[in-house]
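in:
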């Protein structure tokens, strides 16, 4: 496998850009191909079979770009599809759940961890299962926050409507005396300031996007797949972005949160794959 090939990253929409942002920060020599499934967002309300089908289509598209590894930058797809696609495709594929779960287990002092995510992620019980494997003594409380994704997709990151909805969702967790909260959807770090203010300074927020970038860096080093220093800088399209709909809207949003300006986003027909 070509060590100078790009890394494929995909999400249901813009949320996976939080993972791409961490990869860019921590692995500046790497190239990235990002796909956001903006035509079919959100994934959290879709069935397992549907999310697996979507994930297969996206991976087949990313393989046409000769990627060397794939990051499923979506908690719902990680919960529903990771085990399946790992077996079906020959290149390394990682999700965002295990890294975040491990960080939460290491961070908690009272053994009470909260997880917020989409209906799909919370309903799957995947975080509880993974955390319990790591430490059976930990109590895990999950809370689905389905409106967070559309709020982020609409750019309502600092809005009174978002504050009100977040207060309603998080009030249940405040009564559980958790000391650690996993932001179990890659859209949610974009609401970190709101969530942190409501939960209070005594609750540690875990951002799986950051932890996933660390895991990816270790995986590439282990398999001797790190891009050679300086190679990616020769590529005028070091970072490429694709979506299934609303390319211009995606470009504007991506530029607002990534360290590099996004000059172009290409729309593709993902159903062809």
């Amino acid at each position: 496998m070509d060590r100078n090939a790009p890394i494929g990253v995909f999400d249901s929409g813009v949320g996976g850009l939080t993972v791409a942002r961490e990869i860019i920060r921590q692995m500046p020599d790497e190239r990235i191909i990002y796909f956001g499934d903006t035509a079919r967002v959100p994934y959290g309300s879709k069935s397992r079979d549907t999310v697996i089908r979507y994930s297969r289509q996206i991976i087949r598209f990313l393989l046409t770009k000769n990627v060397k590894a794939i990051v499923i930058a979506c908690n719902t797809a990680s919960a529903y599809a990771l085990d399946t696609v790992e077996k079906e495709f020959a290149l390394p594929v990682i999700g965002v759940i295990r890294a975040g779960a491990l960080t939460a287990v290491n961070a908690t002092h009272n053994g009470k961890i909260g997880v917020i995510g989409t209906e799909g992620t919370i309903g799957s019980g995947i975080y509880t299962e993974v955390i319990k494997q790591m430490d059976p003594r930990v109590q895990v409380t999950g809370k689905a926050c389905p409106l967070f994704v559309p709020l982020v997709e609409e750019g309502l990151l600092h809005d009174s409507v978002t504050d009100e909805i977040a207060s309603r969702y998080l009030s249940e967790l405040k009564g559980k005396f958790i000391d650690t909260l996993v932001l179990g959807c890659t859209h949610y770090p974009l609401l970190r300031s709101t969530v942190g203010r409501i939960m209070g300074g005594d609750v540690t927020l875990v951002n799986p996007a950051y932890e996933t970038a660390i895991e990816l860096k270790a995986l590439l080093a282990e398999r001797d797949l790190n891009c050679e220093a300086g190679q990616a800088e020769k590529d005028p399209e070091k970072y490429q972005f694709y979506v299934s709909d609303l390319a211009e809207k995606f470009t504007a949003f991506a530029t607002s949160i990534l360290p590099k300006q996004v000059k172009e986003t290409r729309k593709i027909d993902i159903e062809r794959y």
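note: Residues 129 and 151 are 28 Å apart (CA to CA).
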